[in-house]
Amino acid sequence: MYNFEIDKIVEIIKKNNYRVVSLQFPEGLRDYSTSVVEKIEEKIPVLITLISSNSCYGACDLADEDAMNLGAEALFHFGHAQLLKKSRIPVYYIEVRLPHSFIDVLEKNLDKLPENLGLVTTVQHIQRVKEVKDYLETHGFNVYTGRPEGRCKYEAQVLGCSFYAAKSIASEVDAFLYMGSGDFHPLGVALATGKPCFALDPLLREIRSLEEKKEKFLKQRYATIAKAKNAESFGIIVGEKRGQRRLSLALEIRRKLMAMNRKSFLIHAREITPENIIYFRKLDALVNTACPRIVIEDSPGFYNPLLTPKELEIILGERDSYEMDEF
Question: Topology of 6-94 in CATH?
Fold first, then answer.
């Protein structure tokens, strides 16, 4: 099902004469890690292969320093495209493309889609963009894809912290079609653009609208904003992970709060979880400057109201409408 590009990995290791390497997988792929190691070491028996068991939420979350400290000469990072330009040791990105076809699902659901569509996806399905675009255009749709910018490597690619490919074409389209499973990315597209988004799901074999989930999400977020509106003390969370670190933003937020005579404390953490942050429960609210997904998916588990920097701007009277937090 997954393409881990074993031959490519073996070729890289042999070409560079690596003796010790480390492999890093996101949680969704980690079940396959020992099988990948077996296949690599079968072809290079003298190789020492390490597997990182720490959390991995994206290419922003490289384990290069940990691998280096254990003596690894290179890191193979699975499931994401390159994001960070610098690393402590060489990092090779194995994107793990998926073989799913979307055409058979499209055939049965064309009547659900408007005429002008923006097409977006994640790196796992990026190779299917042209196929889906061509199919839709032959059936009378006008299809647009946004150029890569910032953290994204490919045309039509979106990340949980970057929806530029969608925003850049939002004025041209009636709705977006997200190719992939799950609701997080298409929900982000809908929120970032203000346009309807449909998920073309190859696993559930369906096309579904995200409008109902979007409205439910916004109600929850505005309820959290209202709960924090009169907060007098804030914890400003700074992520320690290199690709999630926004200290300058945290300092800017602190200056704003100080100017309004509200207390604030800078809290740094590698893993931002309810268990780690519970010790700051006496604070009235928290502002997360690390990965935006923490607020979107994990906010209900925190004792304090957990806000994005954009949500804090609503509280401070700097904006009226909701906007996604992006890098």
Answer: Rossmann fold (3.40.50)
